[in-house]
Amino acid sequence: MQTTLTSQIEFNGVGLHSGVETCLRILPALPGRGIVFRRSDVDGATADIPARWDLVKQSPLCTKLVNEHGVSISTVEHVMAALIGCGVHNATVEVNGPEVPILDGSSAAFVRGILSKGIRQLGAPLKALRLIDMIEVQKGEAWARLVPHDTLLIEFKIEFEDAAIGEQKKLLNMSNGSFVRELSNSRTFCRKADVDAMRANGLALGGTLENAVVVDGAQVLSPGGLRHRDEAVRHKMLDALGDLALAGAPILGHYQGYRAGHALTNDLLRALFATPHAFELVECDAEIAARLPGAGVHWGEIPKVA
Question: What DSSP element (H or E) covers 79?
């Protein structure tokens, strides 16, 4: 069955890249609406921006959606991961500015808000997107692929020269609250040299050591250090889940990424929808629904360090 929230949730914070203070509210929605962002600072029908793969304006730093009227919303990936990871299929995400607030750099606050309010079923059938054939995209050394599987698996490998990150790889089954337990509190990360370069170019204006893991060689500069030894690859998996949620339906397939980012995952969805024989839409019976991200998730699965 399709789901939504029982009541609205509100969050306040700054955008990581813009540094602009914004208020975000997640509102319940009717079945069939899907996830729709709404710019409350924009008048009229132009304010709505559906969370869809074909509305992505690719950026290496975040996922940005732009509707047909040119109205945009940036850094949607963390709230999208929280919604799909908690099993929410319909919601209006209202923001009074150009960027979703970064909060602590993870999805933890969004997850806590969603689970504190609760989720209700809407009595409408839910369809999932099931992979039939492999789809793969590549850019330089980086690649991403989707292969058939009966549930959503996310597998990722990263390699950084900084010893604080180094080489990390992980595979997780996203069923049974795995996102909430294993990924939701993993923060965005960056190298100090990259932060300095971005700020010199007017980017990452809202970034602090409190909302991102900043590393310099073997040193972790953020207070308190890492939440997980492999927090960096966990965050890449969080981002991948949020970006895959733009498919508009839960995915049954195995996502594999190597040095992939937001743009490459969006390329993967574009390649998928350009290859209709590679997937099918299936109505979720009880067995399929039990394998979807967020099925049966509860408050006790929120990580202690969130």
Answer: helix 77-85
pLDDT at 302: 84
- Buried b / exposed e along 260-298 (16+ C-beta atoms within 10 A): bbbbbbbbbbbbbbeeeebbeeeebeeebbebbbbbebe
Domain residue limits at 93: 3-121
Distance separating alpha carbons of residues 33 and 60, to the nearest angstrom:
28
The whole-angstrom distance between residue 8's C-alpha and the CA centroid of its chain comes to 20
CATH number at residue 214: 3.30.1700.10
Domains of the chain: total? 2
- Indicate the pLDDT class of residue 210, thresholds 50, 70 and 90: confident
User: How does strand 9-14 pair with strand 21-28?
Assistant: antiparallel
Catalytic residue, candidates 69, 262, 277, 298: 262
DSSP 184: T
207's tokens: 């970034």
Q: Are residues 289 and 219 in the same domain?
A: yes
pLDDT band at 299 (very low <50, low <70, confident <90, very high): confident
State yes or no: is 78 an active-site residue. Answer: no
